[in-house]
Design brief:
By secondary structure, this protein is of the alpha+beta class. It contains two helices and three strands, in the order E-H-E-E-H. It has a single domain, classed as TATA-Binding Protein. Strands 1-3-2 form a three-stranded antiparallel β-sheet, with helices on one face. A hairpin with a 2-residue loop joins strand 2 and strand 3. Helix 1 crosses helix 2. It comes from Blattamonas nauphoetae. Belongs to the CTAG/PCC1 family.
Length: 85
């Protein structure tokens, strides 16, 4: 069976931010664990997410959903930076 895969890398402001994002996003359950999975890791200040799905539609869905989550998490970190400055 063919598997579809996509890896997304995002540079954050620090290793700490990447680690926070990886931990926070890893606890979110997969939308459809029977058809897709993801691996989220922090490598220095880089956040890397690899998505694997059984079909293109499932891959698109999991990537899109996680990009929304990444965006919200980055906004939350940015708010925390602003309030401590």
């Amino acid at each position: 069976m063919t598997q579809y895969q996509c890896t997304v890398s995002m540079r954050t402001l620090s290793e700490e931010h990447a680690a926070i994002l990886a931990r926070a996003l890893s606890v979110e359950p997969d939308i459809n664990p029977e058809r897709s999975s993801r691996i989220i890791v922090a490598e220095g200040s880089l956040l890397k997410a690899t998505f694997i799905a059984q079909d293109a539609k499932s891959l698109r869905t999991i990537v899109s959903n996680n990009m929304d989550l990444f965006s919200l998490a980055l906004q939350a970190i940015a708010l925390g930076i602003e309030t401590t400055s």
